[in-house]
Write a structure and sequence with these properties.
It contains 7 helices and 11 strands. With 293 residues, it is an alpha/beta fold. Strands 1, 2, 3, 4, 5, 6, 7, 8, 9, 10 and 11 form an 11-stranded mixed beta sheet that branches. The structure holds ligand LNRAV4D5 and adenine (ADE). Adenine binds next to strand 5, strand 10 and strand 11.
């Protein structure tokens, strides 16, 4: 299978420059419309698809981002590897604004979102023990280091519901008792859905603030977040531009098995599966459900 990189742009990142044959395309999915049209093209000779998570003009709130449609649409276009770019707050002095963190774990505190493609009529349980793709994450780290960016090789991302930022008591609890390193509002269920869709997924989080625990920093405000994203957007773009040179043009089997996550996940007996749900799973689970979808 030909490698195709899917980039999900976060707050302040609504397009991507330098794509050859760039075209915004509309993709319909059985889960509704994605956040926006998707910009397709080639970067460094490699196929790429860019989707602004909140839509151009920042239309969707973290709770209303159509996460399932976004992941389905990328899969439907042929994406094999997803790089998710996100703004985040930091709970660690050493993870300073402007730094990048390659996320390797999540604590999911979201509760208003559709979290699975599966359900009644086709039940599946994938593993999230290692929720991001180690191979793709390592390549993001390599790209960041080659560019001399300040980057942290791992970090636990606390996904909160929002849209309000945390209280100080929550911030201290996440930092001191839950062991979170960074905080944002969109990392989950995005990462979990990418796993269900058998996509390799790496999350590159850009620290924009110290949330509200830090005695020397004011409470978070959106203007400060966007200012930091703006100051560091060139670094995020450079990191993405370096990836085609690091990935091979054929998608080799993922050593961690991200691309085979559904091999033993589906519980529902073939004769008890709901044909309407199977039809919706054509892109996400077509590899394992085959003729059933
Ligand atoms: C603009 S501050 C809060 C907002 O920014 C982050 O979005 P994203 O992860 O898409 O970069 C954060 O998760 C919140 O949604
Ligand atoms: N402190 C913070 N909390 C939640 N989401 C964020 N996005 C950027 N900074 C954030």
């Amino acid at each position: 299978m030909e490698t195709m990189i899917g980039v999900i742009g976060g707050s302040g990142v609504y397009d991507i420059a330098g794509l050859e044959d760039a075209r915004w395309v509309s993709v319909d999915t059985p889960w509704g419309k994605p956040s926006d049209q998707i910009l397709t093209g080639r970067l460094g000779g490699m196929r790429m698809a860019f989707l602004p998570r909140h839509g151009r003009g920042h239309v969707h709130s973290p709770s209303t981002v159509p996460y399932r449609a976004n992941i389905d649409a990328l899969k439907r276009l042929g994406v094999t590897d997803v790089i998710a770019v996100s703004a985040c707050g930091s709970f660690r002095e050493e993870m300073a604004p402007g730094d990048f963190v390659i996320v390797d774990q999540y604590i999911d505190r979201t509760h208003l979102r559709e979290k699975s493609f599966f359900g009644t009529g086709c039940v599946a349980h994938v593993s999230l023990a290692h929720p991001t793709c180690a191979r793709l994450s390592a390549l993001c780290l390599q790209a960041a280091r080659a560019l001399d960016l300040r980057v942290h090789e791992r970090g636990t991302y606390l996904a909160m519901e929002g849209p309000q930022f945390s209280t100080r008591a929550e911030s201290l609890m996440y930092r001191d008792h839950w062991g979170a390193d960074i905080i944002g509002m969109t990392g989950m269920p995005e990462a979990a859905l990418a796993r269900e869709a058998e996509l390799c997924y790496a999350s590159v989080a850009m620290v924009t603030d110290y949330d509200c625990w830090h005695p020397d920093h004011d409470a978070v405000d959106v203007a400060a977040v966007i200012k930091t994203v703006g100051q560091n957007a060139a670094n995020a773009r450079a990191l993405i531009a370096a990836l085609p040179g690091l990935l091979s043009s054929r998608h080799a089997a993922c050593p961690q098995g991200c691309d085979r996550a559904l091999d033993h996940a589906i519980m529902t007996a073939p004769d008890r599966r709901d044909p309407r749900l199977l039809a919706r799973l054509d892109a996400v689970a077509g590899r394992v459900l085959g003729a059933q979808t």
